[in-house]
Write a structure and sequence with these properties.
Blueprint lengths: L1 E4 L14 H8 L4 E5 L10 H6 L3 E3 L2 H5 L3 E3 L17 E4 L7 H10 L2 E4 L14 H18 L21 E5 L3 H12 L3 E6 L2 H11 L4 E4 L2 H8 L4 E4 L25 E4 L20 E4 L2 E4 L9 H22 L1 H6 L1 H6 E4 L2 E2 L2 H7 L6 H6 L1
Parallel strand pairs: 1-2, 1-4, 2-3, 4-5, 5-6, 7-8, 7-10, 8-9, 10-11, 11-13
Antiparallel strand pairs: 6-14, 12-13, 14-15
Helix pairs in contact: 5-6
Length: 370
């Protein structure tokens, strides 16, 4: 198969879809890989390393996108819609449920979209979302600590406090991969941490692990209001796989929050779990509403691209190889990849995406059979 690896062009996105190691695994099995010159530089990966792995270096994006399968990190932006076509397999993060223009473009083009974030194993795990959730969760606390500084618009709070002065009060909405990793760093910094989730099992797990170092609360409207009004930092870590995140913090809650408090909404890729969330970039990461600083960068792991690229490839490489070896037959055979299929020949094949926009959903097996 001819496989393309383009350079990411989203604002300050320095990750790359494949490492030289992943490319070598493909070329050793007879596949041809086109790498756009400079694609790996943001992750400190040179063109020479890709050449040594057996890739061919090309200058222009259109040459890479002409491949049978394109492997990326982030969803295509508007200037890349022109490359979508019916015989293309696109393997990347898509987050369609929060992006109507991209959904429309994918459907109009007939392209096959396999989304990292919805590839799901039989045990319910999301193996291609997990590594970036781990990175984003740990970053969320670091970022929050930075923006709590007065020079960045925050209240002027040190996360761990000092003897005689209380530490920061950190509230984490969601006890999944993001929330668990955010809690790990926040507890390590000495903050007072409260984690909310609808799953008693997840809260019990955290309670057992941290042995009183953090507090847990069931996530409902009363408890959310009770804790965020006293919070210095709120981290949104809610996930509905493939679907739009619910609003847990509404617009009318903000005036009652502490002036200079910070919201880091990691759920921004799926629309955000705070009503006032809108996507920002690493170039212009924050905005303020009612005295509350919002950090809503939609590609947080792009700030630590080398770590993120290798963490992502540890999980994606095996699926990329299956797709290269077998094409769409791999999707027919591997249940996890069927869950990953979001669009095919102009059809929506993932229920949460269809629900987000009131579209008809065709099951992946049915769509592929036709």
């Amino acid at each position: 198969m001819l496989i393309g690896l383009p350079k990411e062009i989203k604002d300050n996105e320095n990750r790359v879809g494949m490492t030289p190691g992943a490319v070598k695994a493909l070329t050793r099995r007879g596949h041809q890989v086109l790498v756009q010159s400079g694609a790996g530089l943001g992750s400190s990966l040179s063109d020479e390393e890709y050449l040594s792995a057996g890739a061919e270096i090309v200058l222009f994006a259109e040459d890479v996108w002409a491949a049978q399968m394109v492997v990326k990190v982030k969803e295509p932006i508007a200037s890349e819609y022109q490359y979508l076509r019916p015989d293309l397999i696109l393997f990347t993060y898509l987050h369609l449920a929060s992006d109507k223009p991209l959904t429309d473009a994918m459907l109009a083009s007939g392209a096959t979209g396999i989304a990292y974030e919805t590839v799901q194993t039989e045990t319910g795990q999301l193996p291609l979302l997990t590594p970036m959730s781990e990175v984003a969760g740990r970053m969320a606390t670091q970022v929050g600590a930075t923006y709590l500084q007065k020079s960045h618009g925050g209240r002027g709070i040190l996360m761990g406090g000092v003897p005689g002065v209380a530490p920061a009060n950190v509230v984490i909405l969601g006890a999944g991969i993001v929330g668990t990793n955010a809690a790990r760093v926040a507890v390590g910094l000495g903050a007072q941490v409260t984690v909310l989730d609808i799953s008693h099992d997840r809260l019990k797990y955290l309670d057992d692990i941290y042995r009183g170092q953090l507090q847990t609360r069931i996530s409902d409207e009363y408890n959310i209001e009770d804790v965020i009004y006293e919070a210095d930092l709120v981290i949104g870590a809610v996930l509905i796989p493939g679907g739009r995140a619910p609003w847990l913090v509404t617009r009318n809650m903000l005036p009652a929050m502490r002036q200079g408090s910070v919201i880091v909404d990691v759920a921004v890729d799926q629309g955000g779990c705070v009503e006032t969330t809108h996507a920002t970039t690493h170039s212009n990461p924050t905005y303020e509403i009612d005295g509350v600083v919002h950090y809503c960068v939609a590609n947080m792991p792009g700030a630590v691209p080398r770590t993120s690229t290798f963490a992502l490839n540890n999980q994606t490489a095996v699926y990329t190889l299956h797709l290269a070896n077998e094409g769409l037959d791999a999707v027919r055979k591997i249940q996890a990849l069927q869950h990953g299929l979001n669009t095919y020949q102009g059809k929506v094949t993932y229920p949460a995406v269809a629900e987000a926009f009131g579209l008809q959903c065709t099951g992946p097996a049915q769509a592929l059979a036709s």
